[in-house]
Write a structure and sequence with these properties.
This protein has about 350 residues and is of the alpha/beta class. The chain contains eleven helices and eleven strands.
Length: about 350
């Protein structure tokens, strides 16, 4: 009787993420299937400061981590011994927050004998596009070469991904990150932190053509700049305030959002064409923005991959996903592995 070849055993990675203000743990199988995902958000805690307060964030990570990791394992119906590796965010991010996560991961590795894999948070955002929940049909894999836009609170990066873990870094923001611009402009027009979701909500009732805010195209290069736009909003707000009356918050939010989306979509699709990309990927917190998602889907000539909203903002499934590919590639960290708070994408 012929012997059926048996499928290779699944590879399971426990991801640990604490680069900013979310404490997260997740178990992912074969770099794609989310067996569990737990995120303890601190957004409410930081809202009264109008941004993330680093010391408060690290202390809260210490309080949150053990229950978060335990929940991630129990939701996956697994013990640590059923996992093959632990992947943890080394950077970029807030130093104190990263230190908590990396020490939790090292402690778990020391106790269990599991290998430790250090992950770049921006690379993790990219790998969120490969993930889907256990029990659901597999989503199509992004095809290489792919043109990726990573837009988060601290970063705006344009990257050509030739295959797994192989990148050509094309450009980045020269000043504010896209998410940072959303957060700063939200504060200028009196909206709550985090600014991205607040601006999106306010923009729904506004006219995106009410104000003609500038777009920095930086012709001939793949970089971005948002500080001029932020200053233009500031000047407009000052002018409106001196002339009296209530600020047209919806119109300001919608016009600002449209200016950001125009540049992000325009540059990404121009690069996709220039480098003959077979797919486009948008990831990071700002990729949760509805106007951005709609505009890029409508204008792209190749398939566009944008993770579901729950995987756009910080989570540990993406850390486990990127960690899986790094683990298969043979990457291992020792117990002396340190955080890299300024780890640039261009060094990957
Ligand atoms: O990736 P992320 O969760 O954390 C970092 O690694 O920075 O991104 C957070 C950023 C914040 O600046 C937040 O305002 C922005 O993502 N963001 C949004 C939206 N949701 C979150 N920006 C625009 N529209 C949204 N819906
Ligand atoms: Zn992030």
């Amino acid at each position: 009787m012929p012997v059926e070849p048996s499928a290779p055993p699944p590879v399971r990675v426990l991801g640990i993420e604490s680069s900013c203000d979310e404490t997260a743990a997740s178990v992912v199988e074969n770099g794609r299937v989310i067996l569990s995902g737990v995120v303890a958000s601190q957004a409410e805690l930081h809202a009264r400061f109008g941004g993330v307060f680093p010391e408060v964030a690290s202390r809260q990570h210490i309080l949150n981590f053990y229950p978060v990791v335990e929940m991630a394992l129990s939701q996956a119906h697994l013990d640590l011994k059923d996992v093959d590796a632990i992947a943890v965010t080394r950077g970029p991010g807030l130093p104190g927050s990263l230190v908590v996560g990396i020490n939790i991961a090292k402690g778990l590795c020391l106790g269990s004998g599991l290998p430790l894999v250090g992950v770049n948070h921006l690379e993790a955002h990219l790998y969120s596009a490969w993930l889907y929940p256990a029990g659901e049909e597999a989503i199509p894999e992004p095809q290489f070469p792919l043109l990726a836009l990573i837009v988060s609170g601290g970063h705006t990066e344009l990257v050509l991904m030739e295959t797994h873990l192989a990148y050509r870094h094309l450009g980045a923001t020269l000043d504010d990150a896209a998410g940072e611009a959303f957060d700063k402009v939200a504060r200028l027009i009196g909206l709550d932190y985090p600014g991205g979701p607040s601006i999106q909500r306010a923009a729904e009732g506004g006219n995106p053509r009410a104000f003609d805010f500038p777009r920095a195209w930086l012709e001939g290069r793949w970089d971005f700049s948002f500080s001029g736009l932020k200053t233009a909003v500031l000047r407009t707000v000052r002018r409106l305030e001196t002339s009296g009356g209530a600020l047209p918050v919806g119109d300001l939010a919608a016009s600002f959002q449209e200016a950001v989306v125009d540049v992000l979509v325009g540059k990404t699709l121009q690069a996709a064409q220039e480098f003959d990309a077979r797919s486009v990927l948008v990831a990071g917190g700002v990729s949760a923005n509805r106007a951005l998602r709609q505009a890029i889907q409508a204008r792209a000539e190749c398939p566009v991959h944008i993770p579901p909203i729950s995987l756009c903002t910080d989570n540990a499934a993406m850390t486990a996903g990127a960690g899986h590919f790094r683990f298969l590639h043979g990457q291992r960290g020792g117990l002396d592995m340190d955080v890299l708070p300024n780890w640039p994408f261009s060094e990957l």
